[in-house]
Design brief:
Strand content: 25-35%
Distance between the termini: 35 Å
Strand order of the largest sheet: 1-4-3-6-2-5
Number of domains: 1
Shape: globular
Number of helices: 1
Radius of gyration: 15 Å
Helix content: 10-25%
Largest sheet: 6 strands, parallel, barrel
Order of helices and strands: HEEEEEEE
Length: 116
């Protein structure tokens, strides 16, 4: 029984982690999959983002992001641009997990995980 529970828990954990939205902040624009601009107000954003402290808490392309220090572990590499016109995606950081989500669903494809 214990062995089966352990296997179930490990499998469940792996599935959850594999569905997490992990992002890496690139140092250079050329390294990024998506160029991101941070706006001040939710009404201006394509995506409302809530930042979590570990990958297990992250969502699956729903605006709940875990920022990883390792590009190999990231679903997407992003680069923060200084001008709105340079951005592929406009985001606003929110203070509550329940506020996170897509405002402009037409941009959702930008954060969809690449098939390996």
């Amino acid at each position: 029984m214990y062995k089966e529970f352990t296997m179930f828990f490990l499998l469940y954990s792996l599935v959850n982690v594999s569905l997490a939205q992990s992002v890496f902040t690139a140092d250079h624009q050329i390294q990024a999959d998506v160029k991101v601009y941070v706006v001040q107000h939710e009404i201006q954003a394509d995506l409302k983002v809530y930042r979590v402290n570990n990958q297990i808490q992250a969502g699956n392309n729903n605006g709940i992001w875990f920022f990883t220090d390792h590009p190999i572990r990231a679903d997407k590499k992003i680069y923060f641009v200084n001008r709105e016109l340079q951005a592929d995606l406009k985001i606003v950081f929110v203070n509550n997990r329940i506020q996170a989500g897509w405002v402009n669903r037409n941009k959702k494809y930008l954060m969809t995980r690449k098939n390996l």
